[in-house]
Protein 1
Amino acid sequence: SQQGEEDPQALSIQEGENATMNCSYKTSINNLQWYRQNSGRGLVHLILIRSNEREKHSGRLRVTLDTSKKSSSLLITASRAADTASYFCATDAMDSSYKLIFGSGTRLLVRP
Amino acid sequence: EAGVAQSPRYKIIEKRQSVAFWCNPISGHATLYWYQQILGQGPKLLIQFQNNGVVDDSQLPKDRFSAERLKGVDSTLKIQPAKLEDSAVYLCASSLRLAGMYNEQFFGPGTRLTVL
């Protein structure tokens, strides 16, 4: 079963606009990670936020985590056509395997 | 540094045939993962190895899927016999340690399997 669910399923914006994607999950976590997938570069890790962190930045990316609401958001500022991709959140299973469970993703289209 | 290598990139087979995928992780990465990604969905973990031992294979359909990681380096995933619903992209990933311990996973390009 999928732990994280992204919202919206699809998002279309103009180049230069900001894009916000949300992820909700069901059980307690150690960390939450965001990945990007496009046809050119496959699945690539973007950012990791630990359960005791509330916000993290990496370049044009900003991730927030609200453990009380079991939700996270990924903000991409000043989007570019190259940001067109599917974005997945992944949460770890709090068992001995520490395996990651991926959501179904948000498909982002950035129009030039 | 070289990334995760997978082969073949594409494979088309008929149902009930067998198929095998190969993965070579990033050098020094102890943990190796096989995922199945069906079109429009996120990756689903099939099996996770730590060195050459299985950490989790709870979602591996063991009646038809098998995987091994001999010598704790490269790995093969086999499907025998294949069903139509096995059509998907099979992704291999590796990480330095167990992913949940604040480790990112590095993914290969995947093998796109079509079962006719």
Protein 2
Amino acid sequence: GENVEQHPSTLSVQEGDSAVIKCTYSDSASNYFPWYKQELGKRPQLIIDIRSNVGEKKDQRIAVTLNKTAKHFSLHITETQPEDSAVYFCAASMRGAQKLVFGQGTRLTINP
Amino acid sequence: GAGVSQTPSNKVTEKGKYVELRCDPISGHTALYWYRQSLGQGPEFLIYFQGTGAADDSGLPNDRFFAVRPEGSVSTLKIQRTERGDSAVYLCASSGTSGNNEQFFGPGTRLTVL
């Protein structure tokens, strides 16, 4: 089955700097890659997603890139703010299968 | 409109007891998912419903776990003979139609088995 690896497990950046979180997946049949943000004690919330027919997607300060050949995708957050501090999860879903397979999460801390 | 809701928010039970966890998906969402999240880890898939039927139950860890969705809306996750290792946050999500659509998560039920 699908396996998703996420790095780093923790990331600390200065406010205003950029943060990058990387994920790799194992199954080339995967075609949907969402990113979720989870604050302490709260539900995961989708922040951006990408499908396998595009290589990059951007939404204001957040962007995701996908390399299908290498089977990896990355989350980029620019001009980080304290409210970006949270745990971020990447996930992958295979064509025809609806379940999401999640990475282990990255705890992002923005230092003022 | 209202998001996904789950009840109870917290459940403490004793080893060996039976528990039921409820999920109310977003109105009109045909797909419903259950995940389990242990401390410091990503959500782990348990089961997926399309309408009333379980389309994929490959994530259920053993036969103590069972889920139903009799009318294609509310779902109940049932755990028999609970064990301490069942302690986790149980998350429910729903999405609009079949295909890779956004899954909206509920707040979860924190289950503690003493």
Protein 3
Amino acid sequence: KNEVEQSPQNLTAQEGEFITINCSYSVGISALHWLQQHPGGGIVSLFMLSSGKKKHGRLIATINIQEKHSSLHITASHPRDSAVYICAVRGTQGGSEKLVFGKGTKLTVNP
Amino acid sequence: NAGVTQTPKFQVLKTGQSMTLQCAQDMNHEYMSWYRQDPGMGLRLIHYSVGAGITDQGEVPNGYNVSRSTTEDFPLRLLSAAPSQTSVYFCASSYAGVSYEQYFGPGTRLTVT
């Protein structure tokens, strides 16, 4: 079983809608990343969280350590937000410098 | 800054051939890593390095070799290519480990026939 589960797998929205993508993990973590993979394949980092909430433009990421859950929100979605959004975590065991990735959520925003 | 660069962008190999995927970064990052991405699966760690001269195995290291002789470069060697190694390969780097922002290269699409 993958240690990192994302939901939904696929999401279609209309331009302007509020989007939520969820990430749940089964191990203790020290860091959680949200990444965006463009249709052309490139991957960029959106957020790195260890607690609380971060905001950048129309994107908001939250994490609840006790519930082992993080959400990525997109306000006023736009077709250019269409991409695959990937959650990745660093476990706390053994001081390992390794990330475990979810399978991604494919978002399509229609005009 | 060029960021993280990878060459080649595309490669076709025959089973049994060997090759090296190149990765370089100009941000003086200590941490570098190699991932493979396959359809329906998340990115999986192949090997990583926390600094020059130090490498370690990830989740799927078999069939791959790495070395880190300089801070800038982290090449990935396929020793004897197999069809199961058909994948998209990404190199990434960060300041000092996976608790820092990760910077990804553009990827190399490898097909082994």
Protein 4
Amino acid sequence: AQSVTQPDIHITVSEGASLELRCNYSYGATPYLFWYVQSPGQGLQLLLKYFSGDTLVQGIKGFEAEFKRSQSSFNLRKPSVHWSDAAEYFCAVGAQEYGNKLVFGAGTILRVKS
Amino acid sequence: DTGVSQNPRHKITKRGQNVTFRCDPISEHNRLYWYRQTLGQGPEFLTYFQNEAQLEKSRLLSDRFSAERPKGSFSTLEIQRTEQGDSAMYLCASSSKGLAGGPMKYEQYFGPGTRLTVT
């Protein structure tokens, strides 16, 4: 069955430091990959997506992610974190053969210290 | 573009009562999804509509749950005889069909959610 793993439940970084959030997926074929961000009590906002083509994708708020097929990974990165980036981040996967749903990881809570 | 809206934002109910939530998708989107999110977890798929047709249901959607999208616009999710285990955030998302049903349909835009607490 398809699954998404986000190995880090919590991550704390200093403001201005770089960030990498890990995401690994298990799918039978080429997946469609997404990163969403959720602030407390709010819905999910789409940060970026990968469908095909260039494996390095740019998103909003200065985020980027790289698809690595050989590692089944889609890690999210940001070169310099701002205090307003503190939130929960979810990696999600969709695939044609698994219907129209997205399958989400359990999320990574990002804390930013000043 | 006013985004996906959901009402109510919060609902507290006693066990055994029925509750109904509403979702209004982005106006030009013909696909609508319901997900459930419990504390410390990512959202889990419940069901999906294309226009007014309910095309897919998760095994999570027990007989006490029913969803409708009568005119292909807004949708309602009803939970009958609520149980404490139903306490969760219920999220609605919408997407467009995209070209020939390609990957764009997976680009889902979420509403703020309805937080249900069953006491």
